[in-house]
């Protein structure tokens, strides 16, 4: 996919080191756009809410823990429905006070409801909550803003030019949040910028909602740039979707809570199997291609896990202090053990033994992984088969596709609703080229390039990983030189260092 960073970021600075990384707006490249009264001012559901509308100057800091003499740091634009203060005649002010309960303000949007032609597309792998996000975008457009033309793009990015669309209405999406998957289909790859933007232009679509992971958001950034180059009045907005929780900046991605909760079922089953047999071992493989957040949080939540392996923390099998030695010691002490391994852990060890290509990729550009759970299981079995003095019973459980196919739980359903509604508010206000996300507990609009510039990873020199090590009592498998090297790679700027590190984004101290 081509470079998507050609458009410069909008930066505003202020006193005490304040920096706003702002998102683009339609008025940046289309002058003299008309505005329209915001339909929310006459919506009875919001007439009783005090200060429902977000002030134009509201921003959210990326980091909330700083030194007293340090800079205020990076901020993002706060999400929500917008308003603008204008001078009005007194009788009109009174009318608005009674009608909107929002004060003497002229509420504005950049789209008239009857001119909006919106579309929604889901890309990449499945994730709990996809249907909830689709449902809430549709319902927010219909019930909050009076928009009646919403299309679902069938089958991911390639659906723009190779498949039919699906008409989405509140009735059609009413109960889809109770089902897993995505009702409009998904696929990997298929990003053809000219064909996609031609389809958007030919269909008269002026709002594009794109739900997907970092690769999908990179594609969304490219689409936004082409729409801007053509001067189209069309907004592109993203909602970050990755079950692995590997998208940076945001507190967490939707579906993550559900994944951790569902992983407990597999870990509990592995524990029952292991505890019921002499020298029983339960091995559970969880999702986590490049990061181990699901494995780490599922392990901490379970308290039945004796060993957790993630991509960020290297390990070795043989020799003193190795994995096999620890497994043997744990069995002698407890008589059973449970191992949780993220799918991306130990891939360098598998690659060293395998003749298959280590550079093979799927349609989204993700590295194709070998089955580390099966590999570790075979290595453990072979190790104890040589000894003969300690027979083991090992059960391997791989629930990955079961976990990602379930409906979202209550927590993720609420989160998906907030993401979707915030995204719609931003689009109707004319913002574009942004992703809707939660930062320090506040809904924000984040520029595409901040979402796609790097991946979020578990920091193994952080307190959260130390909590896991103390819970499982496993060794870190790191030598003194390894620790120093990792600390060099992960050391943040001194003045903005978080007290509890990056792993604390989804948990309190």
From TrEMBL:
Reactions listed under catalytic activity: beta-D-fructose 6-phosphate + ATP = beta-D-fructose 1,6-bisphosphate + ADP + H(+)
GO BP: any one term: fructose 6-phosphate metabolic process
Main location, first listed in the record: cytoplasm
Cofactor(s) essential for the protein: Mg(2+)
Domain Phosphofructokinase intervals: 119-425
Pfam families xrefs: PFK
Any one GO molecular function term: ATP binding
Active-site residues from the entry: 244 (proton acceptor)
EC number(s) reported in the record: 2.7.1.11
Annotated control of activity: Allosterically activated by AMP.
InterPro entries xrefs: ATP_PFK, PFKA, Phosphofructokinase_dom, PKF_sf, PyroP-dep_PFK_TP0108
Site (Important for substrate specificity): 215
Binding site for substrate: 242-244, 287-289, 343, 401-404
Residues bound to ATP: 125, 188-189, 213-216
Enzyme class per UniProt: transferase
Annotated positions binding Mg(2+): 214
Keyword Transcription regulation: no
CC terms in the record's Gene Ontology section: cytosol
Biological pathway: Carbohydrate degradation; glycolysis; D-glyceraldehyde 3-phosphate and glycerone phosphate from D-glucose: step 3/4
Localization annotation: Cytoplasm
Keyword line: Allosteric enzyme, ATP-binding, Cytoplasm, Glycolysis, Kinase, Magnesium, Metal-binding, Nucleotide-binding, Transferase
Quaternary structure (record): Homotetramer.
Family stated for the protein in its record: Belongs to the phosphofructokinase type A (PFKA) family. PPi-dependent PFK group II subfamily. Atypical ATP-dependent clade 'X' sub-subfamily.
General function of this protein: Catalyzes the phosphorylation of D-fructose 6-phosphate to fructose 1,6-bisphosphate by ATP, the first committing step of glycolysis.
Record's protein name: ATP-dependent 6-phosphofructokinase
């Amino acid at each position: 996919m081509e470079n998507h960073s050609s458009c410069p970021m909008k930066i505003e600075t202020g006193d005490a080191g304040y920096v706003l990384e702002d998102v683009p707006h339609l008025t940046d490249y289309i002058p003299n756009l008309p505005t329209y009264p915001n339909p929310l001012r006459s919506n009875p559901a919001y007439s009783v809410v005090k200060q429902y509308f977000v002030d134009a100057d509201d921003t959210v800091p990326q980091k909330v823990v700083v030194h007293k003499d340090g800079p205020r740091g990076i901020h993002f634009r706060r999400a929500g429905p917008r308003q603008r203060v204008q001078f009005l005649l007194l009788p009109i002010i009174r009318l608005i006070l009674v009608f909107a309960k929002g004060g003497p303000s002229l509420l504005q949007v950049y789209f008239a409801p009857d001119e909006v032609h919106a579309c929604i597309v889901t890309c990449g792998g499945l994730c709990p909550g996809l249907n909830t996000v689709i449902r809430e975008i549709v319902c927010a457009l219909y019930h909050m803003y009076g928009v009646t033309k919403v299309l679902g793009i069938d089958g991911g990015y390639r659906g723009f030019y190779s498949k039919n669309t699906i008409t989405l209405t509140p009735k059609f999406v009413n109960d889809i949040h109770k089902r897993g998957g995505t009702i409009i289909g998904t696929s990997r790859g298929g990003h053809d910028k000219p064909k996609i933007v031609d389809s958007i232009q030919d269909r008269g679509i002026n709002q594009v909602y794109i739900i997907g992971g970092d690769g999908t958001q990179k594609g969304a950034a490219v689409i936004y740039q082409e729409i801007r180059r053509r001067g189209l009045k069309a907004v592109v907005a993203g909602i970050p979707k990755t079950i692995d929780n590997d998208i940076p900046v945001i507190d967490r991605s939707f579906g993550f809570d559900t994944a951790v909760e569902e992983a407990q079922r597999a870990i509990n089953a592995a524990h029952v199997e292991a505890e019921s047999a002499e020298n029983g071992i339960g091995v559970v493989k969880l999702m986590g291609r490049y990061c181990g957040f699901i494995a780490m949080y599922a392990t901490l939540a379970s308290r039945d896990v004796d060993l957790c392996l993630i991509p960020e923390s290297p390990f070795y099998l043989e020799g003193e202090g190795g994995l096999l030695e620890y497994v043997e010691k744990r069995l002698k002490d407890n008589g059973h053990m449970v191992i949780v391994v993220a799918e991306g852990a130990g891939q360098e060890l598998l690659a060293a033994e395998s003749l298959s290509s280590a550079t093979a990729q799927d349609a989204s550009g993700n590295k194709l992984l070998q089955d580390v759970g099966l590999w570790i299981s075979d290595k453990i079995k072979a190790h104890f088969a040589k000894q003969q003095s300690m027979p083991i019973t090992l059960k391997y459980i791989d629930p990955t596709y079961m976990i990602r196919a379930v409906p979202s739980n209550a927590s993720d359903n609420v989160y998906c609703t907030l993401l979707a509604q915030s995204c719609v508010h931003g689009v109707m206000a004319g913002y574009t080229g942004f992703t809707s996300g939660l930062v320090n507990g506040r809904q924000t609009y984040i520029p595409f390039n901040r979402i796609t510039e790097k991946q979020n990873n578990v920091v193994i020199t952080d307190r959260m990983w130390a909590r896991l090590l103390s819970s499982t009592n496993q060794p870190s498998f790191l030598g003194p030189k390894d620790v120093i090297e990792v600390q060099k790679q992960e050391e943040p700027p001194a003045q903005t260092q978080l007290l509890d590190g990056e792993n604390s984004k989804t948990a309190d101290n």
